[in-house]
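User: My notes are a mess, but here's the protein and manganese (II) ion's SMILES. Can you give me a structure?
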Amino acid sequence: MNEFLKRAKEIALKIRDAERIVVVSHIDADGITAGSIASRTLERLGKDFRIEFVKQLDKKKIDELKDENPPLVWFTDLGSGMIHEMYGLNAVITDHHVPSSQDVIVPKHARKDLRTFFEEMSKTDVLQLNPHIFGRDGAVDISGAGTTYFVARELDRRNVDLAPLAIVGAVGDLQDSEYLRLIGTNRLILKEAKEWGYIDYFLDARFFGRETRPVYKMLQYSTDPILPTLTGDERACMNFLRNLGIPLKRENWRRWIDLSFEEKRLILSELVKLILRMGYGHELASRLIGEVYILKNEERGTPLRDAKEFATLLNACGRYKNAIIGYNVCLGDRDSSYKEALRMLNRHRRNLVEGLNFVKEIGLIKREYLQYFHAGDRINENIVGIVASMLLSEEKEQLPIIAFANSEDGNIKVSVRSPRALVNQGLDFSIIMKEASAKVGGYGGGHNIAAGASIPRGKEEEFIEIVEKMIKDMLTK
Ligand SMILES: [Mn+2]
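Assistant: No problem, the inputs look usable. Here's the predicted complex:
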């Protein structure tokens, strides 16, 4: 921990010394919260700065920054994977993605003029705070918002009030999903935030919408875990509650937070029985309950009160190219930006439901080792991956799902989601997406369980053939 904090302090010093700073962050919930933490910190320091949100940090963006050549660039929730391109740039990075090598890699385009390259290299000054370089797993230990928070905290003790945003960022990146609670360095943020009275956390149902949805809706839309015979069926959910003698409505539709302890306990124990009776096993049942994170300064019954709902609101903003709206909400706007964010959240939910219905209409095409669908223009490329996740969670006999959608750049966006059991058997879609897409003239990557790619139009069939063969090889090795 000492080394980690020491690095945070070094970065803090560099920020304190900089005359002007450009913050570059990612457009998802973790990136938006990370950018908000950085920006409030710089505001409190009285710094001259600007912030921008990008979908991904590519060479083109880095070249633009090099041309502008600001005194300091602060990358949050991205940057570690592109360090090898940052020669000539004065930068700090607070990220949690797998870093590219710390050694000097001479990029292809620089090989022609090595002298200029090494001159530039010698001017390069990049410091990063990233759990991977301290031997921890960036998928669960701490998020981009979390690493940014540790630097903010070094710069000004008042910034402890930004800890809730760091928790929202971690939850937005599903860092609580595997262990059903936040672990590692995230725990330090959590404890601090609790001591200061900003956050409360306890065991409860992990359902999305605890604060805002009528209970029957919450069950109907549950995908983690999926509730056999209930998920997706409104009438069944209503009947399930009625049969337990739980009133659906008092003055208003009752939400999870409106129920008594006894009512909650009854529902949860019946759900466990249902899951086991339907043969889904203990592992699924265990996902019903986990740690939940409450932002105590936010109004009860709003999507900002629960970290998971807050993160979803931000993700909705990012996905529809309005990261800045989410950023304003993080910084305290409860008026026009907040209303706009709510509108985007509703639109996002509607699009997901429509997307799901569309795929159910056209049907998944099943093959021996995978299943797939092509959404064309009917599902936005930015949510086609979520639709694939939802479809996967509804199935009992599970094959990986490959989803295609038309991308606005003229190519085909590919998203893949794999059942965890196959990943445990050695399947790794980060490798498959990278190699298979390269074979058809595209690019890709990601995580073992969820990955993506971009491939040229018309190459879908060929791509499926290659992917299926690679899955087969990996699983039968
Ligand atoms: Mn992140």
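The first helix runs from residue 2 to 17.
User: Great, I'll file this with my notes.
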